[in-house]
Amino acid sequence: MFMADENLKAVLEQQSGEYKDMYGFSDDIEYEFKTDKGLSEKIVKQISNFKKEPEWMTEKRVTGYRVFEKKPMPTWGGDLSHIDFNDVYYYLKPKGKKEDSWDKVPEEIKRTFDKLGIPEAERKFFSGAEIQYDSEVVYGHVKKELEKDGVIFTDMDTAIKKYPELVKKYFGTVIPPTDNKFAALNTAVFSGGSFIYVPKGVKVAMPLQAYFRINAEKAGQFERTLIVADEGADVTYIEGCTAPIYMSSSLHAAVVELVAHKDAHIRYVTIQNWSKNVYNLVTQRAYAYENARVEWIDGNIGSRLNMKYPSVYLKGEGAQGEVLSIAIAGEGQVQDSGGKIYHLASNTSSKIISKSVSKGSGVASYRGLLHIAKDAANVKSNVKCDALLLDENAKTNTYPYMQVHREDATITHEATVGKIGEEQLFYLMSRGLSEDDATATIVLGFIEDLAKVLPMEYSLELKRLIKLDTSGGVG
Fold first, then answer.
1. What confidence tens digit (pLDDT) does each residue in 110-131 have?
2. Residue ranges per structural domain of the chain
3. What is the pLDDT of residue 111?
4. d(CA 276, CA 146)
5. What is the dihedral of CA 61, 66, 69, 71, to 10 degrees?
6. CA–CA gap between residue 143 and residue 165 (Å, rounded)
7. Predicted TM-score of the model (pTM)
């Protein structure tokens, strides 16, 4: 899918054998339908026609494609020069239909998610789950009590057909196709993803979960997620993702739109664990109205190149926004992440906390934006970026950008860079830990204040992934 990259094979050969066993396997399955490689207006219409979408959605897709064609490739952040958009399968539908019973999911797909532990996690920790395999959601379930409360939790394709007025009202209003080249691409070819609507005053006690799996080689995954919390509503959404290890790269370009109405609360959690042949180029943005609160908790462990900057537009007085980010840049990885907050109303507050760890040839960069509008009085914001280097070759960068148009704003910003000290390692190893375990213990302590805000199951998973990714970290 990407032009020849001499470093890719070396990077993948170094990927942990344990990752390969747990996440990096692939399945030999049959597809009911897949497009030819490459992107054209004909392919875009073919996807829409296959899904039997209404004309208004087909028009949105075509608009997205035309914007994509005109938009230049980003020249900042990671190196995107290897991308060949004509060597991608933009839509692959596995055989079978979406099921609401796990027993009805095709056996070969079920085995994959059983191995990943998804059904068990749903039963123990979540109010509902959506599972996507390549381009389509293959399983969806929500607890009956939520349905009685009027909560909608389904995939985007179903939402377009069953709740067209809600989708029309919000789709593309937070992230229009003109926003950037990959948002336009997603608008043109999106498939799957989650649609959530939480009615006024309803508080979803347990998180909703989605899990995304790329299986096919040279495949693109372009889910579209839209979450609307009405006045006084409360919801937590958690997503995870993995992919097999191939010697060719894959592309993941999702779009996530959040709308938090007056007094609402949305917490969006991502544990991104793509294999190191995946380019992860995601646009995530939220609108927060009067006294609403939006939290992005963003864990970035996998992928070859990750470019992702969750943002919150504080549009109503008293609104709050938080971006808590963890990035682990192992050998051959570029983690370019951070967050953006726009203070557009008075008495709003925000927090951006970024923790990054780099080892070997890994590069972790914080890229953030804080904007204080001229009409936004009495704003408070705190930005903190901490980086940990595990060896002499590792790199970290910080690119903070602040646009402050008020003198009464209270803003704090701090950034630190540190290395693992020989004394720390010596002490832990003298207590019986191996060098790998001692390194992992220090890294886990470094990110503990962010890991502890995750639900227990995901906190444990994050810690396990970090231990895998930092083994052998000190050179």
1. 555 565 554 455 444 444 566 7
2. 6-308
3. 59
4. 37
5. -100
6. 24
7. 0.87
